[in-house]
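[Q] Does anyone have a clean structure-token version of this?
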Amino acid sequence: MLAYLPANLRDLQLPLRLRLWDGKQIDLGPEPRVTLVVKDPSLVTQLAHPSLDALGGAYVEGRIELEGPISEVIEIGDALSQALIGDEAPVEPDFQPHDKDTDAAAISYHYDLSNDFYGLWLDRELIYSCAYFETGTEDIHQAQQAKLRHLCRKLRLQPGERLLDVGCGWGGLARFAAREFGVEVYGITLSRAQLDLARQRVAAEGLERQVQLELLDYRELPQDGRFDKVVSVGMFEHVGHANLPLYCQRLFGAVCDGGLVMNHGITAKYTDGRPVARGGGEFIERYVFPEGELPHLATITARISEAGLEVVDVENLRLHYARTLEHWSARLEDQLEQAAQLVPEQALRIWRLYLAGCAYGFARGWMSLHQILAVKPRADGSHDLPWTRADLYS
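[A] Here you go.
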């Protein structure tokens, strides 16, 4: 053993090899599957308390290198952190106020990275949200088409209806709903890169009369109940806890009496919304989703109800998102050389950890993914939903 290694590091039995800046190396267990290359000597003492945030940050900043399959890097990194830190005491969440400028900047940071980069590992329609696996054997393209159909069927879309798509991304859902269900779609986003490509794809399919996409903040949505249905996919994670009541009120004001609202998004493990332990959530906040905040299912359903909407159906797709992220991560890993030509080295390091880490986290229940369907009841309390879910699966 090397004397300058922290004592608690020497006693581990993990399939991990440490290679130090001077060429010396040590195996922390038999048959190492991952090698952690320490390039910065100051990191050795930090390895005595290896939070996921610290480990991830060191890799992003080039102070360590990681050798081995990225999925095993994540698994062994978490085992190292768990062994040396354990389950830390809960940290009081520090939710920040959100305004239009900070939200726009955060969205641009994440989504305006490179359309071509996203195209390497997303499906053909660039659907950047949890897919839906009806059997578990589908490829990512099939599963994303199934997700779009599942959403549209839950909304009971009918030809000629007006659908509001809040956070429309690259327009995959908007085009699908217009093409397959005959609805008129008004979509909004804060990402200019997404909007430009989404409009190009709308034009290429000849859907300009049915699909209108705009750069607009959800706080500016019309409040005259002009839409028959509202869908929001992967959007409310960016709203912030403080603005959840306003967000739900804006959805309520946009939909007509008797209309349906679908909210599809990531939810927190803990009821107070604090991030996952040992720094995983902090890494995502720092490098991936600045200003992002995850509410618990209980919180978002409460805010939906307080806005005047009635929650009528909830579905947990946590394992579907784990499978989705496994597909995304594998597709990115298969094309690392091409990805390196599209984004800066630091960005690629972030995304490698993020996709593989989230696949691991969703599989282990660190966070969930819920589809929440709500209705805006008429004055007499009525609505037109079927008595059962049978129509969704016929």
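[Q] Thanks! Anything notable?
[A] The first strand starts at residue 16 and ends at 19.
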